[in-house]
Design goal:
single chain, 18 strands, about 25% strand, alpha/beta, Transcription Regulator spoIIAA, 4 domains, Rossmann fold, about 425 residues, 13 helices
Length: about 425
């Protein structure tokens, strides 16, 4: 029996796909990269935007249409947040939420064991006092970089966001469980690890630790590089930043979600910080980490956003000088407060997205141009014919001409040029 995974969404979803893949392998299944050969097709969904939901529905229907004899499983955030919609997606033979990933293999086995297989919908609700679901991974797909989930859930309830409903309240993984998995992943040959969570900086609020503790643990265990996923503006104290700056193998790449560079909009979003506070955090990061790269997300067209509000965001982005910006239009999520507010017309949102993207692309180009002439260390990862691509410690993508003998090696490169979204380098 072969199983194929189709994953949408964030790095937490990527990690959870790996956990389910290992569970299937332990049950005797073989992983395949081709849906045409799969007996089981698992769609691990995202629901952060309406487009994410649309992609999920399209994927489930396409897989069932093209592979009618395969068992199609829908799991992840979409069925957890919108169980009624998921139940109506009849092309999915099994529907399981994200609270109980270990049940996916069990439900598949039960499906095949029945003489007359019938559809199964099993979505457990998140609740108070919930604990972290620990499904450790032994080998993250044989890649140089592994993702490890250390935190789940969110308590913020931003007015536009469905994730607290899809993921439940914040909960942290124990350091003992984390250490065991990190040791296994390191022994499997992974040189770099990325610690991820839904709201990473809330790690430890429920177990007496700080979000710095899992980072320091990974650094002590011998990884050449330790990264973190995106950050929300929570619990980032001066003491925590000072501790981070002393960890030599910590990578100074900070994706600090902004969402809007306008104080009025931030307040309506229920974001709990203002632009002055955000600017001060960026100043501290750049002072403590000389090679810091700060990237962000900016939402355009939030309900009530005027042209003046949008221009405030645009100018604030320029003022901070982000190295990269993910620009996206606001998407109404049923069940959130913002979905009931007066909406910005779609045409206005689209036009504003294009304007901000143009600014973001120019900033990105200027940043990459500044790298030319520098000598940097990169991890050789993805090979394509006569060259490979890899990332610097602060996550700048670099393309280098070389053969496969450099696979998974840390190499020193001189930056010689740049393209739209990566640098070109030569081996030293």
């Amino acid at each position: 029996m072969k199983v194929y995974f189709y994953t949408l969404g964030c790095k937490v979803n990527q990690y959870e796909t790996e956990t389910m893949a290992e569970q299937f392998q332990k049950a005797g299944y073989t992983l395949t990269g081709e849906p045409d050969t799969a007996d089981v097709i698992v769609v691990n969904s995202c629901t952060v935007t309406a487009v994410s939901d649309q992609k999920t529905r399209q994927a489930v229907r396409r897989f069932k249409r093209n592979h009618p004899s395969s068992l199609v499983v829908l799991t992840g955030c979409m069925p957890q947040a919108y169980p009624e919609q998921a139940e109506r997606l009849v092309e999915a033979d099994i529907v399981v939420g994200n609270k109980d990933h270990k049940a996916v293999v069990q439900k598949a086995e039960e499906y095949f064991a029945r003489s007359l297989p019938d559809r199964t919908v099993s979505i457990l609700s998140h609740g108070a006092g919930e604990v972290f679901e620990n499904l450790p991974i032994e080998n993250f797909g044989g890649r140089s970089r592994a993702f490890v989930k250390v935190q789940d859930g969110c308590n913020r309830f931003c007015s536009y966001c469905i994730i607290p409903y899809a993921r439940g309240r914040s909960r942290s993984r124990s350091l003992d469980d984390l250490e065991a998995e990190l040791r296994q992943i390191r022994s499997a040959g992974h040189r770099e690890v990325v610690l991820v969570g839904i709201n990473f900086c809330c790690y430890g609020l429920d177990n007496g630790h700080s979000f710095v503790d899992p980072i320091a643990l990974a650094c002590r265990l011998g990884f050449d590089r330790v990264r973190i996923g995106s950050l929300e503006f929570d619990n980032i104290s001066d003491a925590a930043l000072s501790e981070l700056s002393k960890l030599e193998n910590f990578c100074p790449q900070f994706h600090v979600s902004l969402q809007a560079g306008c104080d009025k909009t931030l307040k309506t979003m229920n974001r709990h910080y203002n632009t002055a506070e955000y600017k001060e955090l960026c100043r501290k990061l750049r002072a403590l980490f000389p090679d810091a790269v700060i990237t962000t997300d900016i939402m355009v067209g939030f309900p009530g956003e005027t042209e003046e509000d949008f221009m405030e965001s645009l100018h604030f982005a320029k003022e901070i000088g982000f190295e990269k910006i993910h620009v996206f239009p606001y998407s109404a999520r049923p069940g959130t407060k913002a979905a009931t507010m007066e909406q910005v017309p779609k045409a206005v949102k689209t036009e504003r997205v294009h304007r901000l993207m143009a600014v973001a692309e120019e900033m990105r180009k200027d940043f990459l141009k500044e790298q030319v002439g520098k000598e940097v260390e990169i991890l050789a990862e993805a090979f394509h014919g006569d060259h490979f691509t890899g990332y610097t410690k602060n996550y700048i993508p670099v393309r280098v001409a070389a053969d496969r003998s450099y696979q998974d090696q840390l190499v020193t490169v001189r930056i010689t040029g740049f393209t739209e979204d990566e640098c070109k380098g030569e081996l030293i």
